[in-house]
Amino acid sequence: MKHSSKAENILSQLNDKSKLGDIKKLATEIKKDHELALELWSTEKHFARLLAVLIMDKKYLSQEFIDKLTNDIKGQAEDERNQLIDWLMANQLMKDKRTIALMGSWENSSSSFQRRIFWYYQARLRWLGQEPPTSNDELLSKIT
To answer: What pTM was computed for the model?
Structure first.
């Protein structure tokens, strides 16, 4: 697939020795650019996908689109999968009421990644004291 000159320029700056701070700095310079994010995501390269997560426009994050992202992540190495899922949750899904509601519906998702996000989100709510302790027993009964 032929990439735009903008994407080629960015891809030339990313390699296996890229640091996460460098990726975040690039994202700050780029800001939001959903089309570029899709182009970077399509490369299937780990660091390009991390950058793509940071510059995606959350208004395009529908359940269908998230299903595609989580399905695409299956092809990454295990440590890369976990990092991509964590970045997707922290940098996109946690930033919008609509996507937060989606995360809350993934308890029984067919996607193991979405179920992971659901449980991570539930733990995070409790860790930050945003969920009353009375719901803990119900949640614990589901995993025992």
So the answer is: 0.86
